[in-house]
């Protein structure tokens, strides 16, 4: 039987008109005040409906106020302006939920929704009590198609903000495990999580019974306003995956990924390398349509596993007058499109390289 939930649209005061929406999902069990609240932020091409199953699992015990943002399946992985507009709406949604409920608030971001959630925290006046990121690309990743994405990363994190990042495991071809590891907070791959011990694809973890049970328990624990070290949600995690939190003075207004670059400068056709002095670009090609039954190894995707770009040939075809730019690390990617991510190392004495197009 499919999980279901009652639906109510919540008005979010905005300075400018937006087609985005906020829904409150509820089950037959009414939350007892002051019950915690959860705001689900979907990812690239995602839907608010992806959170219905998790809402049903949360309602099996003490019910929570469950909200979901509706971005109409916007392509947040393809342009930074989409991330910014979604983050602005999410920040306003957090303020609206804070006015409706006095209990704790947990922000839940899936995939690129995790990037949107972190950006909303940096932009908004109201803040959640905790953040749960599910398969979010927190490290440089092929989905970040343009250098502008470096400017939409949050510039700082609060010392009292509890952050947990969960990875689906090695069978997630879209966001590999190492890209979901946060710089601070707790990182938990689902194959090592208590009572899970299984790996999931990028979207399936929002529909599988084992992962939903774990995420529901984790959300209930994060929603309790307790000290970080004594909170019961820590018992669900593998201690070996925890990243020690630095001292409060280690945080500053500077971007944790390097120098923050205003969008206005990026819009002037200037390209900035990623943090660490590495400039990245992508070669992409549309996958060939499948004319036969997909292989079992594809886990249901509609592409041919053998249809890939030859990244080695792409490296050899790259011509540049500067020999120092010949050091290239190629990363092959196929889902959702065939692509090669090439990272070029600039001269060692240069801290930042600015490329301007020819006049």
From TrEMBL:
Keyword Membrane on entry: yes
Major location category of this protein: endoplasmic reticulum
The keyword Protein transport is assigned to this record: yes
InterPro entries linked: AB_hydrolase_fold, PGAP1-ab_dom-like, PGAP1/BST1
Signal sequence interval, chain numbering: none
One GO molecular-function entry: phosphatidylinositol deacylase activity
Membrane topology label: Multi-pass membrane protein
The enzyme's E.C. designation: 3.1.-.-
Keywords: Endoplasmic reticulum, Hydrolase, Membrane, Protein transport, Transmembrane, Transmembrane helix, Transport
GO cellular-component term (any): endoplasmic reticulum membrane
Compartment(s) of residence: Endoplasmic reticulum membrane
Region (Disordered): 239-259
Gene3D superfamilies the record matches: alpha/beta hydrolase (3.40.50.1820)
Residue span, GPI inositol-deacylase PGAP1-like alpha/beta domain: 37-151
Family assignment from sequence similarity: Belongs to the GPI inositol-deacylase family.
Primary role: Involved in inositol deacylation of GPI-anchored proteins which plays important roles in the quality control and ER-associated degradation of GPI-anchored proteins.
Name the record gives this protein: GPI inositol-deacylase
């Amino acid at each position: 039987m499919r999980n279901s939930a009652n639906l109510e649209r919540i008005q979010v005061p905005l300075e400018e008109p937006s087609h985005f929406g906020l829904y409150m999902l509820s089950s037959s069990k009414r939350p007892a005040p002051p019950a915690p609240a959860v705001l689900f932020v979907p990812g690239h091409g995602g839907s608010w409906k992806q959170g219905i199953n998790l809402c049903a699992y949360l309602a099996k015990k003490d019910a929570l106020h469950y909200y979901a943002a509706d971005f109409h399946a916007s392509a947040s992985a393809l342009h930074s302006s989409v991330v910014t507009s979604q983050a602005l709406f999410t920040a306003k949604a957090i303020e609206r939920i804070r006015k409706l409920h006095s209990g704790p608030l947990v922000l839940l971001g899936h995939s690129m929704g995790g990037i949107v959630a972190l950006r909303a925290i940096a932009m908004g006046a109201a803040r959640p009590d905790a953040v749960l990121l599910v398969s979010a690309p927190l490290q440089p990743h092929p989905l970040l198609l343009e250098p502008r994405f470096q400017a939409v990363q949050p510039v700082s994190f609060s010392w009292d903000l509890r952050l947990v990042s969960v990875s689906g495991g090695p069978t997630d071809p879209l966001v590999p495990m190492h890209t979901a590891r946060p710089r601070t907070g707790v990182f938990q791959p689902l194959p090592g999580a208590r009572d899970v011990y299984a790996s999931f694809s990028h979207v399936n973890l929002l529909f599988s019974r084992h992962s939903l049970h774990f995420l529901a328990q984790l959300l209930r624990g994060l929603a309790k306003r307790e000290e970080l070290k004594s909170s019961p949600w820590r018992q669900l995690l593998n201690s070996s995956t925890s990243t020690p939190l630095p001292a409060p003075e280690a945080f500053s207004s500077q971007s944790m990924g390097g120098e923050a670059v205003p969008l206005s400068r990026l819009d002037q056709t200037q390209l900035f390398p990623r943090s660490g002095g590495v400039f990245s670009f992508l070669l992409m090609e549309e996958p060939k349509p499948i004319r036969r039954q997909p292989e079992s190894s594809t886990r249901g995707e509609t592409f041919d596993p053998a249809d890939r770009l030859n990244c080695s040939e792409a490296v050899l075809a790259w011509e540049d007058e500067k020999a120092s730019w010949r050091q290239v690390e190629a990363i092959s990617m196929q889902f959702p499109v065939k692509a090669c991510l090439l990272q070029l190392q600039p001269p060692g004495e240069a801290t930042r390289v600015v490329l301007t197009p020819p006049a």
